Amino acid sequence: MRVNSDDFVAVATIGRPFGLNGACSLFVIGETLLDSSFPMKLWVGNEEAVKEITLLEISGGNNLRCVFEGVNDRDEADLLKNSTLYLEKERLPELEDGEYYFRDLLGLSIESETGEVLGTVKDVFNYPTTDAFDVKLLNGKTITIPFNKEIVKKVIVGEKKIVVDNDKISELTF
């Protein structure tokens, strides 16, 4: 089966094997998996081909580990390395007002507080210390903007825009 971005969302990337019993390191995208109950049916693979897999547990603090049904040794875990875990969009939890998923930010216009269009969101990242997004500026350059209250003033998904502090953005583009 092929992944269709209208129906699926990436929720994690599987890292290298951890130990000898089939566990893998895990790099989550957002908080969906961390807020879920297990076992959980997901899809594993890449955009070209995926197969169903059951995630049994996630453990660890800063260095997450996961265990899958039917993956019982290091060699089987190694076959999953660098694969992406996908969830059907229809199974994503409902959000409260003012909340949004990373995928909702893609393509949004970046505007200054005075309404000047600066660029467009091209990608969103969940780094260990902060969330950030890449913006393609109107001049063709790409910058990475940390997603914090000092810089991001408003996210208005319905109007397809993110309002930012122009002075802070100027510091990033020097």
Would you mind describing this structure in some detail?
The protein has 2 domains: about 10-90, Elongation Factor Tu (Ef-tu), domain 3 (Beta Barrel), CATH 2.40.30; about 100-174, SH3 type barrels (Roll). The protein is elongated and about 55 Å long. The protein has helices spanning about 75-80, 100-105, 165-174; strands spanning about 10-20, 25-30, 40-45, 50-60, 65-70, 85-90, 110, 115-125, 130-135, 140-145, 150-155, 160-165. With about 170 residues, it is mainly beta. A 6-stranded antiparallel beta barrel has the order 1-2-5-4-3-6. The protein is built from 3 helices and 12 strands, in the order E-E-E-E-E-H-E-H-E-E-E-E-E-E-H.
Uncertain stretches: none
- Share of helix, binned: under 10%
**Which sequence of strands runs across the widest sheet?**
1-2-5-4-3-6
Under CATH at level 1, the class of the largest domain stands as Mainly Beta
User: Would you tell me the structural class of the helices and strands?
Assistant: mainly beta
H/I helix tally: 3
| CATH architecture descriptor of the largest domain | Beta Barrel
E-strand count: 12
Blueprint (SSEs and pairs):
Blueprint (H helix, E strand, L loop, with lengths): L7 E11 L4 E6 L11 E6 L4 E10 L5 E4 L5 H5 L5 E5 L13 H4 L3 E4 L4 E10 L4 E7 L4 E5 L5 E5 L4 E4 L1 H8 L1
Parallel strand pairs: 7-12
Antiparallel strand pairs: 1-2, 1-6, 2-5, 3-4, 3-6, 4-5, 7-8, 8-9, 9-10, 11-12
List its salient traits:
SH3 type barrels; single chain; 6-stranded antiparallel β-barrel; 174 residues; 12 strands; 6-stranded mixed beta sheet; 10% helix; mainly beta; elongated; Elongation Factor Tu (Ef-tu), domain 3; 3 helices
